[in-house]
Design goal:
This protein is an alpha/beta fold. Helix content is 20%, strand content 11%. The chain has a 13-stranded parallel beta sheet. It starts with a helix and ends with a strand.
Length: 351
């Protein structure tokens, strides 16, 4: 009985110590957990530092994966999912500059900033988007492209139509995988009327649109574009089809509408793979005989060319023809009927 106070005191001491230690351990675990969470949290939105987690998840998507990827149209949504933002399509007038929040979106593979009043491409940021496959800056106020764009080694499509370029940026020639390039309607290029020799470096280019640039000539390197299949040269100032174009025998579509062409070279017959030829709104007056050797033609547009002497009997050689455009050429109705009888019944004739 005399030991009861001592035992009771000992019991209280042990209980208090146990509770204190347990509370301390719990606080320690909570602090460690907070530290772990803090490490996993994304960096501040204004930071250009990319987390290790995002870097590990970087990879090029194939066409099917890109087709099924979510399209982010608001930057606020995209920046909350930097690891899965593969397509960013910002709305018109959203941002005349590169927002700092884009710095973490290094997984972007399709970026469209059309009609956003963009005046300059951020040179410190664009080089980080080296997984880009499609880049579109249409309808802006760009005058140049930074040299850092040479880092975009995976870029396959580039659209920069309707901007304020005084000259076509030479850096474009440093994009080896480029398959599609649209430089159309940069009307300030009319002051120079040329394109740089570097365009000849684009050996993988398949589609090239140079509409409305007031071009008067081509560099000799243009003939190096041996894989080119589609060339839109509408609204320029050529008087003949340049020899550089006539060297590209893989061409399937050639649009030369509204230039000033008066002569069609015999070498046009070299383009055996042509399926679509548009020479409308030029002044040819006589039917170019070299066209008769383009037997794979499916669409032939000779509207508003002032041609009067159509070789009607010879038109029967176009067995694959689907459309023949002859508007504004003052062709007699009886000649149209003869052409109908010569060509297959499936051919649509517009006159």
């Amino acid at each position: 009985m005399k030991n009861r106070p001592f035992v009771y005191f000992l019991f209280l001491f042990v209980l208090t110590t146990t509770i204190t230690f347990s509370s301390y351990a719990q606080r320690k675990r909570n602090e460690e957990k907070k530290e772990d969470v803090k490490k996993e949290e994304p960096k501040n939105n204004t930071s250009l530092v990319v987390s290790d987690t995002i870097k590990k998840l970087r990879r090029l998507l194939n066409k099917e994966e890109l087709a099924n990827a979510n399209v982010f149209r608001k930057l606020d949504e995209a920046k909350t999912k930097p690891d899965s933002t593969f397509i960013l399509d910002l709305p018109s007038f959203c941002c005349p500059f590169f927002p700092k929040e884009m710095g973490n979106l290094v997984n972007i593979q399709i970026l469209r900033m059309n009609g956003v009043d963009l005046k300059e491409v951020d040179s410190t940021m664009i080089g980080n988007f080296d997984h880009l496959q499609v880049l579109s800056f249409n309808n802006n106020f760009l005058k140049d492209l930074p040299k850092q764009m040479a880092s975009l080694k995976n870029l396959e499509e580039l659209e920069i139509r309707k901007n304020k370029f005084l000259t076509i940026p030479k850096i474009i020639g440093s994009l080896p995988k480029l398959r599609y390039l649209d430089l159309s309607l940069n009307i300030d290029l009319a002051k120079t009327g040329t394109i740089p020799a570097e365009i000849g470096n684009l050996k993988n280019l398949e589609i090239l649109k140079l509409e409305g640039l007031m071009l008067t000539k081509l560099p000799t390197t243009f003939g190096n574009l041996t894989n080119l299949k589609h060339l839109n040269f509408r609204l320029n100032k050529l008087k003949s089809i340049p020899k550089e174009i006539l060297q590209i025998t893989n061409l399937e579509v050639l649009i030369m509408k509204k230039n000033g062409i008066t002569v069609i070279p015999n070498e046009l017959s070299n383009l055996k793979n042509l399926k679509h030829l548009d020479l409308s709104a030029n002044v040819l007056t006589t039917f170019p005989e070299s066209i008769l050797k383009l037997t794979n033609l499916e669409i032939l547009n000779l509207s508003d060319t002032k041609i009067t002497n159509f070789p009607i009997q010879q038109l029967g050689i176009f067995k694959k023809l689907k459309e023949l455009h002859l508007k504004e050429n003052n062709i007699k109705a009886e000649d149209i009927n003869k052409i109908r009888n010569i060509l297959p019944n499936t051919v649509q004739i517009y006159f």
